[in-house]
């Protein structure tokens, strides 16, 4: 008797789901008709990505779209659980967004997988073509375009590092080999450094928990360290900084946020201004003046020299002596 | 009727995540082992499938290769646990850690994009179905096939021996069952299912990512527990089916949380609270005297 009841319950439950699954296709979600809806999907909370999002909103505002006036933003953050990305992308597409923003590679891919119609802009993605978001950086060809956080010329950063050190012999590179963005940049940096005639030692950390050991272990063997834009090392920037002070190791990191938290200097990407650039692209698309398929991917048009003066003092370096490379 | 779209979306994802939950169920409930290999075998399956597809293999072969990758991962954990006598929890963590490098090597990159590639879902899409419905159909078919095969398998002599090993290891040994081998087979099937889930989800998401294993064990366990709270003391076949329902409900709960637009920093606590509410529902009903049947979750 009890068995029978349970079987019935489960069948009812299953069939409700099955029915629901077959029953719907295109329902309108009601909303404000004048305001544009922008859906944002970000992979994880951290300084650079948050700055990119803030910049994006500034860019949109400059382009005439202000939150609360003629713009509704639906912001989703996957908190580094990639299994959330799919549900969140589906939600943003379902809610009839006029434009989507993907922050960092997996978030961007997840959105691109969900819709071929809604315009998507992305930022904090290093290689859009490699991630199959666009056909090519010059002619995206699909519904995706955006900004790359690849430094237009990575040797500007490695040159900066080399210019700080007297007679550099060995330079270390640290990154998380699990991040597509970092891996590309690390190999470019290695190339540039070897071209400049120094030996390169690489060490990688998979999680922020390993960062301290990796930094300590690398710092003792090298004259200076380069860190590409990397979520793991960006999240643990202060740990890196503490080790660097102890071991007196000059560190050049690709992102400004990381240098401010625990590096010596950078000539790098300001994620806020990169996000702003992305926001301006988005505003043009919302205006109908541009379409992603014909809008080339943009590189950061502003690189900034940032010197962490407190770190310079701790390392015994005169901050004024650090100059942007030619 | 927004809710129907949510249910539909949750169903499409639930059926593919269910394979992971079924994998976890085999070690966690049938063998009574807490195996954390899942967080490594899941991205391994995804990675193998993705690299196979981009190398030109048929998506079905790629998915199958992903499955076998998981079987091998399970074998490693099984050997560590049974032959080297490493406690199960540690054995799983060790394999999971090592698999990170293995998967990285297999994929040759931390992220492989599958946008525009042929997947196991694309054939149904080419018949004119939208992506969600294609996923529901393919996912349900594969889940049904896996459940059927597992059901038949657990009725064979080996299958029964595996179940006996999980129920009472001393008694099983006394009856001449090689419990080490049974555990090993369990580990292999379990992680095969988990990797299969990874392979399907990568194709559904449009990319495989080295870091996609984070948190997967929670998804598996949550699906199992939800199923057990809702449907108690079921025979094996129904338990496997209820896990699919559990996985769907879990995805549905998450979708609701996302729908509420909670602050990003609070989204995890929100998911946790909703889960607690669902899981404690039978207790609350019991306190109110609405529940006639007694007894907790079957271990």
From TrEMBL, chain A:
Organism ancestry: Bacteria, Bacillati, Bacillota, Bacilli, Lactobacillales
Key words of the record: Signal
Protein name: ABC transporter substrate-binding protein
Signal peptide per UniProt: 1-20
Source organism of the structure: Candidatus Enterococcus lowellii
Pfam families assigned to the protein according to its UniProt record, in alphabetical order: ABC_sub_bind (PF04392)
InterPro entries linked: ABC_transpt-TYRBP-like, Peripla_BP_I
KW Signal (keyword) present: yes
Keyword Electron transport recorded: no
Automatic annotation (TrEMBL), chain B:
Keyword match Cell membrane: yes
Keyword Phosphoprotein: no
One Pfam family per UniProt: BPD_transp_2
TM regions (residue ranges): 14-31, 60-80, 87-107, 132-154, 184-202, 214-231, 236-257
Alphabetical UniProt keywords: Cell membrane, Membrane, Transmembrane, Transmembrane helix
Protein's name according to its UniProt entry: Amino acid or sugar ABC transporter permease
Membrane topology of the entry: Multi-pass membrane protein
InterPro entries noted in UniProt: ABC_transp_permease
Subcellular location: Cell membrane
Native species: Candidatus Enterococcus lowellii
